[in-house]
Write a structure and sequence with these properties.
Leucine-rich repeat, LRR (right-handed beta-alpha superhelix), 885 residues, 30-stranded parallel sheet
Length: 885
């Protein structure tokens, strides 16, 4: 249990040393203890529940050692810390300090050890650090320091350990570090340094540890690195180094760990590394190395970890690799290597092997004299290796935790011996993207009692739904040919986090238990099956559901009100079913909802106004197309869709969720990206990944009427708008010009009138624009994207003119006054055009009728002739009657 620090300690005036580190202390540390007149050593580190405040230090303080690391502090270092001018050791790591280092810090000239890592210090390191002429150890890592390394660092002539990891240091003055010729450890990783490594680094001949990773260094590694004859640890990964590995590396005879991954190294001189016989870890992955694995690697008999992934290595895997008897981890994935795998099976200490994306030969049919001589793998990744069968050696594997055979050409049945493979240890099994048709003698429930992830998607499974182990977190068996109903036994898998049964031939109703059986279920995907019946009223308070995908089934009835309990829901897709309901306005209370798709159902009626000003605050995509909604467009919701109002320029991410899964021995992040189908730019598009910045409204193919509100202009983040195939009237709002991110606008098949606002031509991202089959008039806007739209975008608007139509716009005096469309009482066609023709035809009789008949060719235009003829005949008869009278 935690303990309080007694206040009485502050009265012990003769106390010279107090050590209370790792004592599980809590509460506030008595401030008076800092001021004890004879206290020289104060160590209270690693008491996370302990809080304290710096007092105003007296200049006479005798403190020589002050260690407060891992305790709770918030605020800035006080300027009075400069009064501790007797300090030799100051250890303040992980104390949550903020702000800048006070200038008085330079008074601590007796410091030998200084550690300020893992805080929130910012701005530049003060030049007064150059006063620490006796300093041997300095660690400023994991802060927010900026700017160049102070030139005063050249005064730190006694320093042997310098760590500046993970800050924002930059600049081109690294050459000054070459003067610190006593350095044994130098860590500059995770900053913004760029350019070439200065040649002065060659002076640091005492270096044992050097890390320059995660910067922007480029060009070749200087040959002077060969001067580091004492170097044991070198990390240059995640930079932009080019050229060959320097031949001077052969001088690094003491090196045990060498990390050069994620650069642009090239060439074929890997054989020189075979001289570094002390190597225990070597990582050359993610470069442009284009050679064979050299036979000289057989000399690396101490090597335990070897990474060569993501290069252009060719040839056969050398048999000399068997000399690496200490090898435990090997990654050769994503290369062009060939040959059989048996060479790895005889490395008895090898437990982590990645060979994916190589054209290897499987070991089917291979037998071994004694299975006990084989390596027992824990992690084995063989995806995309061209395998056509399950490798036989797997039947003797009893310690596997992770097995991936996805993206191969395995066909037929899963062999029955697999049910005895690693039954007590297997965490992850990936067999996706093969041609597997079924299981040979499967048990009722698959046997791996610790299994967490089972992926069987994209195969040819023609069976009923297999039940995974009850321990499973993530079960994906989508895109197969599963038949039958979903068995209720699936609800016994109460640990499920993700369940994806989409794109199969499952039938029947959704089991009632499927929404309430698990406290952890977050992702449920039953899309594209033949499921029928109602959506069960199954979701309880506290639901963890973030995605519910039920589209493309035959579900009926209303949307269950119990979905309101799914307060974490981000995507709800009920599209392409037979749901009969009014708009579920109550979903607006789901504050996390980003995607709502109800398209192709039997929704009907007017959309009720939002219950509050906070309805659907994070909604990015709403698709209500192909329903029977009536009334006006739901413009009141435009005010509440806050996520559509922002023009987001953040880096590209995708909608989805990520969760840490696994057990104490094997953990991983399980990433799941949402997908959807949406009409955009005139075609139906599948979004396998939905960009987080994407926003869309599709209200097409309903019975909406009335105007498009000018308030649409507040949704400035919109990328696509589709209001086509409705009964909308009025003008196109000029406020569309505010939608600066708009890429697609479809207003076709409505009754819109007036001119196309010229301002719309300012939408420079607009790639699709369709206003066909309306009653629009006047000139088509010119400029920017409007020069790219085809004439079909404007078809069915008789009074439009200008490019790309063949009808050109004349001058304003010669152009007829465009009609104002209103509906005639006894016709669905505009009455004012009729009146115009009647006036023109008065006294002209059938001649005008003939001319009109020749020029108007559509059915509605033919109506003019017929109606005009009837009205002319009626007027003539009335005139004759008047004359007779």
């Amino acid at each position: 249990m935690p303990y309080l620090v007694p206040d009485k300690l502050a009265n012990m005036s003769t106390l010279t040393a107090l050590a209370l580190d790792n004592c599980d202390l809590q509460g506030e540390f008595p401030r008076g203890i800092f001021l004890l007149p004879n206290l020289q050593i104060l160590v209270v580190s690693y008491n996370q529940q302990l809080s304290w405040y710096f007092p105003e230090f007296d200049k006479r303080s005798p403190l020589k050692i002050l260690e407060l690391a891992g305790t709770s502090f918030s605020g800035e270092l006080p300027n009075s810390i400069g009064n501790l001018d007797s300090l030799n050791i100051l250890y303040l790591s992980g104390c949550n300090f903020l702000g800048s280092i006070p200038s008085s810090f330079g008074n601590l000239t007796q410091l030998v050890y200084l550690n300020l890592s893992n805080n929130n210090f910012m701005n530049q390191v003060p030049p007064s650090f150059g006063n620490f002429s006796q300093l041997a150890y300095l660690d400023l890592s994991y802060n927010h320091f900026t700017g160049q390394i102070p030139s005063s660092f050249t005064n730190l002539r006694q320093i042997t350990q310098l760590f500046l990891f993970n800050n924002n240091f930059s600049g081109d003055n690294l050459s000054l570090l070459g003067k610190l010729n006593k350095l044994q450890s130098l860590g500059l990783g995770g900053n913004n340094f760029s350019g070439s490594i200065p040649s002065s680094f060659g002076n640091l001949t005492q270096l044992v540890y050097l890390v320059l990773s995660n910067n922007g260094f480029m060009n070749q590694v200087p040959p002077s690195f060969g001067n580091f004859t004492r170097l044991a640890y070198l990390d240059l990964s995640y930079n932009h180094f080019t050229g060959q590995i320097p031949s001077s590396f052969t001088n690094l005879r003491q090196i045990t760990r060498l990390f050069l991954s994620h650069n642009n190294f090239s060439g074929d001189n890997l054989s020189l590394l075979g001289k570094l016989k002390q190597l225990q870890s070597l990582n050359l992955g993610w470069n442009n190395l284009n050679c064979e694995i050299p036979s000289s690697f057989a000399n690396l008999t101490q090597l335990r970890q070897l990474g060569l992934s993501s290069n252009q290595l060719t040839g056969r895997i050398p048999s000399q690799i068997m000399n690496m008897t200490q090898l435990t981890l090997l990654d050769l994935s994503i290369n062009l290597l060939q040959g059989p795998m048996e060479v790895f099976l005889l490395l008895k200490k090898l437990y982590w092997l990645r060979l994916s994306d190589n054209p290897l030969t499987s070991l089917t049919g291979t037998s071994f004299v004694n299975a006990s001589t084989l390596a027992q793998f824990q992690n084995l990744e063989l995806f995309s290796c061209g395998l056509t069968e399950f490798p036989e050696f797997l039947r003797d594997q009893h310690e596997l935790q992770w097995l991936s055979l996805s993206y191969n050409k395995i066909e037929g049945l899963v062999p029955k011996w697999i049910w005895n493979m690693s039954t007590e240890t297997l965490f992850c099994l990936q067999l996706a993207h093969n041609f597997i048709t079924g299981f040979d003698q499967p048990p009722l429930v698959l046997p791996w009692r610790r299994l967490r992830l089972l992926h069987l998607e994209y195969n040819n499974l023609q069976i009923s739904l297999p039940i995974p182990p009850f321990s499973t977190f993530d079960y994906n068996i989508s895109n197969n040919q599963l038949t039958g109903e979903i068995p209720p036994l699936i609800c016994n898998v109460t640990s499920l986090y993700a369940l994806d049964l989409s794109c199969n031939n499952l039938s029947g109703s959704i089991p009632q238990c499927l929404g309430s059986f698990s406290d952890s279920l977050s992702l449920l995907n039953l899309q594209s099956n033949n499921l029928s019946g109602p959506i069960p009223q199954i979701y309880n308070d506290g639901s963890q559901l973030v995605m519910l995908e039920l589209s493309q089934n035959q579900l009926q009835g209303p949307v269950p009100r119990s979905l309101a309990n799914c307060t974490l829901l981000q995507l709800l897709n009920l599209g392409d079913n037979q749901i009969n309901d009014t708009f579920p306005f109550w979903l607006g209370n789901l504050s996390e909802l980003q995607v709502l798709i109800l398209r192709f159902n039997r929704f009907h009626g007017a959309i009720q106004n939002p219950e509050s000003n906070f309805a659907f605050p994070k909604l990015c995509v709403i698709d209500l197309a192909h329903n029977g909604f009536t009334g006006k467009l739901p413009s009141d919701y435009f005010q509440t869709w806050r996520a559509m109002k922002d023009v987001d320029i953040k880096r590209l991410t995708y909608m989805g969720t990520s969760k840490m899964l696994g057990g104490p021995d094997n953990q991983w992040f399980d990433d799941y990206h949402y997908s959807m189908t949406l009409m955009n730019k005139g075609v139906q598009l599948l979004y396998e990944h939905i960009p987080s910045i994407f926003t869309a409204i599709d209200l097409s193919s309903n019975k909406f009427e009335g105007d498009i509100s000018e308030s649409i202009g507040i949704l400035k983040g919109l990328h696509t708008v589709n209001f086509s195939n409705n009964n909308l009237t009025g003008h196109i709002p000029s406020s569309f010009v505010n939608l600066t991110q708009l890429e697609s606008l479809d207003l076709s098949q409505n009754k819109l009138s007036g001119e196309i606002p010229q301002e719309v031509s300012q939408l420079t991202f607009l790639a699709f624009f369709n206003v066909s089959h309306n009653h629009l008039t006047g000139p088509i806007p010119r400029g920017n994207q409007f020069g790219t739209f085809e004439s079909s975008s404007f078809d069915g608007n008789e009074w439009l003119c200008g490019d790309p139509l063949s009808k050109k716009c004349g001058n304003s005096e010669a152009t007829p006054i465009p009609p104002n469309y209103e509906e005639d009482e006894d016709s669905e066609f505009p009455s004012k055009i009729v009146w115009l023709i009647i006036c023109m035809g008065y006294g002209s009789g059938l001649i005008v009728g003939f001319v009109v008949g020749q020029t108007l060719t559509t059915r509605k235009h033919e109506w003019f002739v017929t109606t005009f003829g009837r009205r002319q005949q009626k007027q003539s008869r009335q005139k004759r009657r008047v004359r007779r009278n």
